[in-house]
Design goal:
single chain; 135 residues; alpha+beta; ATP Synthase, domain 1; 2 domains; nine-stranded mixed sheet; 2 helices; globular; ATP binding; ion transport
Amino acid sequence: MADLKTDKVLQVELVAADRLVWSGQATMVIARTTEGDVGILPNHAPLLSSIIEGVVDVQTTDGETWIAAVDAGFLSVADNRVSILSERAEMSHEIDLEKARQDLERAQSSGENDDAAAEAVRRAEARIRAAERAS
């Protein structure tokens, strides 16, 4: 790998409540906030935002793309460090696509219209998008 200056890369940590999901250097991170999708590049202005259920896309300095499904949480950016904190997070390669589709179908057919049911639908949809985008 080429010698990258610290002002040209982001140090990224994707953290779930129970574990560190992914950590490494990246050239770009895309996440969905409550205000819409945000792209983070090196030297981004400091930012603290809420994220919603969705997909996080990390472009590494090695040219790889890592995709994760995340629940609601927080995104923090400062001094080329990006922290994504979520109750649950899964890397796309950890997701069983067929099971995620079954979870979505079950959540949609539950007949409930409360916040928990809507959250279950959004979580299942995010898991499916992450798994499909990685394949």
